[in-house]
Amino acid sequence: SESENIRTDLITLTRFIIEEQQRLAPDASGELSLLLNSLQYAFKFIAHTIRRAELINLIGLYGQTNSTGDDQKKLDVIGDEIFINAMKGSGNVKVLVSEEQEDLIIFESNSGNYAVCCDPIDGSSNLDAGVSVGTIFGVYKLLPNSNGTIKDVLRSGNEMVAAGYTMYGASAHLMLTTGHGVNGFTLDTHLGEFILTNPNLKIKDNKFIYSINEGNSFYWSNEINDYINSLKKPCIENNNKPYSARYIGSMVADVHRTLLYGGIFGYPGDSKSKTGKLRILYECFPMALLLEQAGGMAVNDNGDRILDLIPEKIHQRSGIWLGTKSEIEKLLTFIKK
Ligand code: P6P
């Protein structure tokens, strides 16, 4: 009957955060839990705004460019403002790095102990085409006795205490790790709650998918061209079929598919941009942490672990490869110096 398939014991993100805190850090202050709740508020607000954007025609160029020279869409600006206000309003965030802000933001009036690095709406160049975009975030606890300086964020990715993304597609999907595995949540817009839908998510074994912008292949190194070309040949482990190519051009969407289906995603450096396009603090580190926590791997163009990098500038870029462990290990046989 109808009543049989109504779940009445939903695990909301709020409940999940509290239960995780009690399970993993019973004597914690609860500040990170409060911060995660402020983050989910920002995601709900951005999700709502993106949905309305189609209707109230927010789509289109805002007519300015952001600190890194990309054409800025109106939604980029609004997503950034929503995020800044949510982090300021949380009271727990002292330092904020945003792709849309050239300089670090220090919330002087906040007494919080956390620094957040974010890309408020990554992939926004695809917005007009209705492609899924997302918010990517990483969280550091301030260094001991710090009052909030750039030193709190120019650190290895191993020191991030939480990271993840929210992809705004048909539904809003949040993938979150606090260093104890990855859990996926889906926004129920009627309840206004993120509901646990992918508990303890682990990346699938290889689905023989590669995800890269082949339009850059003329500029790739020989090693990378050799690796990608090797995937185009029928291979025994894939029933004598070549790999499938899947590239959306929105990192959150490409990484989400990689997490759920397996395979490899790459945005390598090349002869025209040595350090690639993706930013260490708010694209590479959060995705690398998620993939490792889901049983995958993430390395740079030298085969070094992404999380071991230490950025010297807040918008510093790095080449990145992430995905199924066995696939990354195959890549390493081509690129390991
Ligand atoms: P390309 C989107 O603009 C973005 O920052 C990432 O989301 C995406 O992975 C990448 O750039 C796509 O770049 O050069 O392939 O269009």
TrEMBL record:
<protein>
    <recommendedName>
        <fullName>Fructose-1,6-bisphosphatase</fullName>
        <ecNumber>3.1.3.11</ecNumber>
    </recommendedName>
</protein>
<keyword id="KW-0479">Metal-binding</keyword>
<dbReference type="GO" id="GO:0030388">
    <property type="term" value="P:fructose 1,6-bisphosphate metabolic process"/>
</dbReference>
<dbReference type="Pfam" id="PF00316">
    <property type="entry name" value="FBPase"/>
</dbReference>
<comment type="pathway">
    <text>Carbohydrate biosynthesis.</text>
</comment>
<dbReference type="GO" id="GO:0046872">
    <property type="term" value="F:metal ion binding"/>
</dbReference>
<feature type="domain" description="Fructose-1-6-bisphosphatase class 1 C-terminal">
    <location>
        <begin position="203"/>
        <end position="334"/>
    </location>
</feature>
<dbReference type="InterPro" id="IPR044015">
    <property type="entry name" value="FBPase_C_dom"/>
</dbReference>
<dbReference type="InterPro" id="IPR033391">
    <property type="entry name" value="FBPase_N"/>
</dbReference>
<dbReference type="GO" id="GO:0006094">
    <property type="term" value="P:gluconeogenesis"/>
</dbReference>
<keyword id="KW-0119">Carbohydrate metabolism</keyword>
<dbReference type="GO" id="GO:0006002">
    <property type="term" value="P:fructose 6-phosphate metabolic process"/>
</dbReference>
<dbReference type="GO" id="GO:0042132">
    <property type="term" value="F:fructose 1,6-bisphosphate 1-phosphatase activity"/>
</dbReference>
<keyword id="KW-0378">Hydrolase</keyword>
<dbReference type="Pfam" id="PF18913">
    <property type="entry name" value="FBPase_C"/>
</dbReference>
<dbReference type="GO" id="GO:0006000">
    <property type="term" value="P:fructose metabolic process"/>
</dbReference>
<feature type="domain" description="Fructose-1-6-bisphosphatase class I N-terminal">
    <location>
        <begin position="11"/>
        <end position="198"/>
    </location>
</feature>
<dbReference type="InterPro" id="IPR000146">
    <property type="entry name" value="FBPase_class-1"/>
</dbReference>
<dbReference type="GO" id="GO:0005829">
    <property type="term" value="C:cytosol"/>
</dbReference>
<comment type="subunit">
    <text>Homotetramer.</text>
</comment>
<dbReference type="InterPro" id="IPR028343">
    <property type="entry name" value="FBPtase"/>
</dbReference>
<comment type="similarity">
    <text>Belongs to the FBPase class 1 family.</text>
</comment>
<keyword id="KW-0460">Magnesium</keyword>
<dbReference type="InterPro" id="IPR020548">
    <property type="entry name" value="Fructose_bisphosphatase_AS"/>
</dbReference>
<dbReference type="GO" id="GO:0005986">
    <property type="term" value="P:sucrose biosynthetic process"/>
</dbReference>
